[in-house]
Amino acid sequence: MIKRRISSITLLLALFSQFAIADVVIIVSPASGISSISQKQAKRIFLGKMKKVNGKALVAIDQNEGSASRDAFYKTVVKKSESQLKSYWSTRIFSGKGTPPKSVKNDDEVKSWVSANADAIGYTDSSKVDASVVVVYTNK
Amino acid sequence: MIRAITKLVISLALLVIIAPFTALAAQPEIHGFFRAGAAISLDDTKTYQGADKNGDFSSTHFGLNFSNQLDSKWRLASQIFAAGYEENYNLHIDWAYATLQATDDLKVNFGKIKYPNLLYSEVVDVGNVYLWTAPPQELYNSETEGSAYLFMESFVGASAVYSVFAGDFEFTAQALAGNGGVEDGSLDKMIGGSVSVNNEIFTLKAGFNQYTPKEVEDGDEGLDDNVVSVVSGGAIVNWNNVLVIGEYAKGTVDGASEKDSTGMYATVGYVIGSVTPNVTFSKLDAHEGREVIGVGAKYQMSSSSTFKIDYFNVTPDAEEGEESESLGVIRGALDFVF
Fold this sequence. Notes:
The structure holds two protein chains of two kinds.
Chain A: H1 2-19, E1 24-28, H2 39-46, E2 52-53, E3 56-57, E4 59-63, H3 68-78, H4 82-93, E5 102-104, H5 107-116, E6 120-125, E7 134-138
Parallel strand pairs in A: 4-5, 4-6
Antiparallel strand pairs in A: 1-6, 1-7, 2-3
Chain B: H1 2-18, E1 29-41, E2 61-69, E3 74-83, E4 92-101, E5 106-114, E6 154-166, E7 169-182, E8 185-198, E9 202-214, E10 228-239, E11 242-253, E12 261-270, E13 275-285, E14 290-302, E15 305-316, E16 327-337
Antiparallel strand pairs in B: 1-2, 1-16, 2-3, 3-4, 4-5, 5-6, 6-7, 7-8, 8-9, 9-10, 10-11, 11-12, 12-13, 13-14, 14-15, 15-16
């Protein structure tokens, strides 16, 4: 009986975790010299409206649609839905003003890219952070 | 001269595709949009913009966009476009230009550039980005039948765009110079510019443009060589689920005030999940003026696709001594971006 209840609770927790928002952080390379950025700066960089922070040029690395980190990042930091984002980029692309950031598959690829490039900036689930990258923004 | 400009623009478009790229610089990119659209007049005899009782499918079109960030300073972009079965969907260069990032806040564009002064004039063919099946034609139409042009697809020349942030606001100022292109002629000696301010909730934009029409035909005869000045202003408010859009433009013809024209519209929409029902009033005061009241809905099928349907009642200006007769039109469109 008790075992069955524990199994049910475990199943519920597992299901709940599917819908929980991932805890994303924004990362740069230790070589970038940047220690923090604001939410507004992060938003503008990923929307292609700002290319430098404290005089340092940065290139945003995005994640493909469907990634949990991407969903969390755009919901909590950029505050746009996928449809709003597509409409925003359609306006930019089809008037020649810019294109979306380069996109990679997942957190691991973002971390590899950022750690290897001093001018890259990306986002990842906080559990993936290690000494190869520096966290410059945490959504609180 | 026109042939030389066309060659230059095509060369620029090709350059976008073949230009080299570096490691972290963006690679050449291709994007596109597609529309399947139809309109039908509910009147047996009267038509509106090609829509008769048998239906009109000429709004079906597609565009392909190429861009390449060459280095930290230069970017090339171009778009090819095909529309209209009457023209057999022949491809043409919609726009193609090079952008120099002169400073962090200043960009300078050279080439064939989309007309920037109205709220939606740069993306008038990209259905996903606006609420209606088409932006109100009482303002967004370059076939003005003998009156000052309020809208044009693009111009060939140069523009400078200055953008800066202050707190939550983004300010943009733009200046342009060149020759404008319309359905049946060219708008020479064009100079103009716009200023805009926006944040998360609203966008305000004001513009000024001056040009001299050349070789315009038919109903526009007599507009040649008259200097035309156009002032415009528009606003978008996007607050919670409410969307309010309004825009106005007035064209004044120097020495021929009977050819002045004024276009305007106001739209209110309300977002309910994936559907945004909306109502629009628009009006054109010109040689062949009209009033239009429309209701419609936009359905966001996915992040990349929408379905829209509008019904509108068009009341053309009455001839002297006659009563005006209105007609109903239904227009639908499926739009995709990729």
